[in-house]
Amino acid sequence: MSSQENGQVYGRVALIGLGLIASSMFWAMKRAGLAGEVTGYARSEETRATARKIGLCDRVCDSARDAVKDADLVVLCVPVGAMGPVMEEIAPVLKPGATVSDVGSVKRHVIEAVQPHIPEGVHFVPAHPLAGTEHSGPESGFAELFDNRWSLLVPVEGTDPAATARLRALWEGMGANVDEMDADHHDLVLAVTSHTPHLIAYTMVGVADDLRRVTDSEVIKYSAAGFRDFTRIAASDPTMWRDVFLTNKDATLEILGRFTEELFALQRAIRTGDGAHLHDYFTRTRAIRRGIIEAGQDTDAPDFGRVQKK
Ligand code: NAP
Question: How far is it, in rounded angstroms, from Cα 144 to Cα 24?
Fold first, then answer.
């Protein structure tokens, strides 16, 4: 029976890097029976041992080359800066007709780093699931991570549409909504929706940390409201985010420039007592929040739907 006939999208899938995204993919693939066998590889013995202990992947291999041998789909789930070297290492043993994809948060850089190593007869379909948490590592994944979230496919020029369609079926099977986007547009959109907000959160938490020396523990004690969300975002993996800013430089600097201009305008409105400016601005931003909730991408439940600790 072929993979497609029994509900499987791929016979064998290899996950390279076994952190939050790879482990969530594994559990989501298992939940829906999307792959015959899933192999996995992580560079450290410690992560491989943890993966074996918790049953993450059907088979954990001690080398990336072993993991990708005979795979129909290989997904690179390592930090953006590591994608090129990993691809170079696995290239010689890829099966003809296989597809290589990735989940990196930046797309132009990944394409430039990975594509030169893609062998003749192997497809390359970059992707980016817009879902995550501030947690990392093999134990942080869960099957529901991608449910009702967007996953963006960024096929490179000349990609076989059948390879893209098959990857789309996998992401849809894992619960995601799928769209296709050009790499540069992706990087600009993500600079607005994810990368620059992370930088702002890192900055705000850094400022509060400086303040804490002055005000003792008040910053932590009274951080129940908005600041707590900043601290959650600022707890994200330092390696991943270092790589995001180093590889999505232009778009992030462009958005950061605009952000700084707006911040100065608000600063001026506060200094000059221009309440109308502040009110108009906040009315506009409130409408954006409503739009996000109406699109089903967040909840307006009290405290953002968090379960309250007694
Ligand atoms: P993670 O939980 O930190 O796991 C990263 C994995 O990559 C680990 O298995 C790690 O191996 C391996 N790794 C780290 N540096 C490496 C290197 N230099 N060479 C080879 N392997 C290396 O990361 P993640 O959150 O799953 O993120 C993986 C990718 O998904 C990144 O490209 C990120 O941009 C993207 N992404 C993340 C999110 C998010 O919210 N976290 C959302 C969407 C996309 P060891 O454990 O052995 O160190």
Answer: 8
pTM for this predicted structure = 0.92
State residue 150 phi and psi, 5-degree precision.
-85, 140
Residue 308: per-residue pLDDT: 45
Domain annotation for the chain: domains and CATH numbers: 10-181 (3.40.50.720), 185-298 (1.10.3660.10)
pLDDT recorded at residue 310 = 35
Per-residue pLDDT, 231: 86
Q: Whose CA is nearest to atom 38 of ligand 1?
A: 132
| Three-state secondary-structure class, residue 95 | coil
Specify the length of the chain in residues: 310
Q: Does 191 contact ligand 1 (Cβ within 6 A)?
A: no
Sign of CA dihedral 289, 293, 298, 301: positive
The candidate with the shortest Cα–Cα distance to 18, out of 101, 141, 174, is 141
pLDDT: which is higher, 172 or 204: 172
Examine the pLDDT at 28 and tell me if it is beyond 80.
yes
Please answer whether residues 147 and 163 qualify as being in contact, where contact means their C-beta atoms are separated by less than 8 angstroms.
Answer: no
Q: The tokens 């797309």 sit on which residue?
A: 107
Rounded distance between C-alpha atoms, residue 264 and residue 280, angstroms: 16
Backbone angles phi, psi at 58, to 5 degrees: -70, -30
Ligand 1 pocket mutation pick from 240, 243, 248 by most atoms within 8 angstroms of CB: 240
Q: 148 or 302: which carries more pLDDT confidence?
A: 148
Least confidently predicted of 21-25, 98-102, 179-183, 288-292: 288-292
CA distance 20 to 5: 30
